[in-house]
Amino acid sequence: MYKGTVTKKLECIIHLIYWILIFYFTFVKNPIGRQFSVPDLFLCTYFIVFIITFYFNYLIVMKTVFKTFKWKRLFGGVFVSYLVFTFLRFFFEQIVTKLLFDKVNYTDVNFLNYMLDNLHYSSMAIILSSFLWFVIYSIRLLEYNKLILEENKNTEIKFLKAQINPHFVFNTLNNIYSMVYFQSDKSLVAIDKLSKIMRFTTYESQKEKIKLSDEVDYIKAYIELEQLRHQENVRVALNVEIKNEFEEIPPYILSPLVENALKHGEVSDSEPIEIQLKVSSEKLIFRVKNKIGTQKKDSLGGIGLDNLQKRLQIHYPEKHQIKITNDENHFTAELEIDLK
């Protein structure tokens, strides 16, 4: 996960310094002569309302506005913060102080005048909190964008290097050579499957996103070619339920989990590799389960789990979850992506 220079701890320190400065310039008249302003009742209530409005705008309004920025949402958020300030000030200075101290700040409350007066007083809390939030947000955004550019470069290099496993290609070509030499009727099928895989790794993988059906076709071709290579001893139970086959995903998001299972899994008729893909309009769930080979360590190969997680973080930030379960006999990888 991304951690920039402005951490939560540093953000809290910035806020602490900010409030020290606010109170210093408000209450300290002459620091050398040790002259201080003594706050009266309504200055205290004002600061209470100021602080509550400040953090209401900072923690709720600004985050909501910039989640998906729209000018209407910005003006609406500012107006809500203004209403919160006005309501809280009326509550504390006209109701609470009346009950506790038998005092009110506005002796003659005219609705229009009261709203206009608080438009002035609320502006300071709203403007300062918005400014502070935007400064911190901008720093984090600039750092994150820089990180993303660097991660994209590094991931692309790793991704391109790992697109084709040379051992897989060499072994497959050797098997096809043997098939052709012995005039096997499966040789043409094997060549066709290999050409589909090579076409996918050469062209489709260069795209930012591809159709989900293309990724599934690549997985099927990979499985069938493995079955041909191993004389169909590779048993795979593939279950695909896709509501919209034209749904787009980044290439090689699903296939590394399958490649890992085929590389490290031990298969039999009773315990085949189980692959389940279920895609709705809102969610993608991909699950791969295989029996662990007796002398094989099960860990993601190909582009690797670390590389896969980085790509998921880039394409689906806070919208994905990958679970790896490794019990005594079985290895299970489950990927869940929020497509909304």
UniProtKB/TrEMBL annotation:
Claim: rRNA processing is one of the keywords in the record: no
UniProt GO MF annotations: protein histidine kinase activity
Top-level division of the source organism's lineage: Bacteria
TM annotation in the entry: 12-28, 40-62, 74-92, 119-139
EC annotation from Swiss-Prot or TrEMBL: 2.7.13.3
Keyword check for Kinase: yes
Keyword annotations from UniProtKB, A to Z: Kinase, Membrane, Transferase, Transmembrane, Transmembrane helix
Domain Signal transduction histidine kinase internal region as annotated: residue spans: 156-233
Protein name: Sensor histidine kinase
Species annotation: Flavobacterium chungangensis
